[in-house]
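Minutes, project check-in
Item: structure for the 181-residue chain
Input as provided by the requester:
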Amino acid sequence: MPGTKVYADMTPLMTPGGAAKTKSTSKSIPKDPHGFDPSTSTRSPTTLSQDKTSNSTELALRSKKAWEVAMGPGKSLPMQAFMAWMSGTGVSIFSILITGMILMTPLKSIMAVQQTFAPLERVHKGGERLDLNLQKAAFVAINVAGVLFGVYRLAIMGLLPTASSDWLAFIPAKTFAEISF
């Protein structure tokens, strides 16, 4: 029955006087949980050295994750190249959309580089801030390679004005001194 609450029947546990039955044994609750070592509950010099080790481990893990984030756009470049090859070099709506995606994805990533690395760059327990400038530079360089691939794609499709004939509208017409009929 949906929407109805089911309650457990507690009457067998109750005594005729209304009080709950309890077992009165001396070993009902153990003093410490199984496997608990009271000597580890206080902070000792060895614990402090372990904290420093865990901080360096955390920094190493965050640096490794930052490299994974930095190299992420490079993993999408082969797929973009395959999509560009499949769409062809002709000027059609599909190839223009693919080229636009190839151009816009890295540009948006370059604009959001600080937000991308912000969770990894936070100040940790020791007060040190993880320096991610090299990872950010690699991230930007890979995204610039993606933009260059998009520009190359536009040039292959003939959408960039690279020939002198593309600029004929801006060249003034020659005026002739004489005209013969």
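Outcome recorded: The chain is about 55% helix and 0% strand.
No further action items on this chain.
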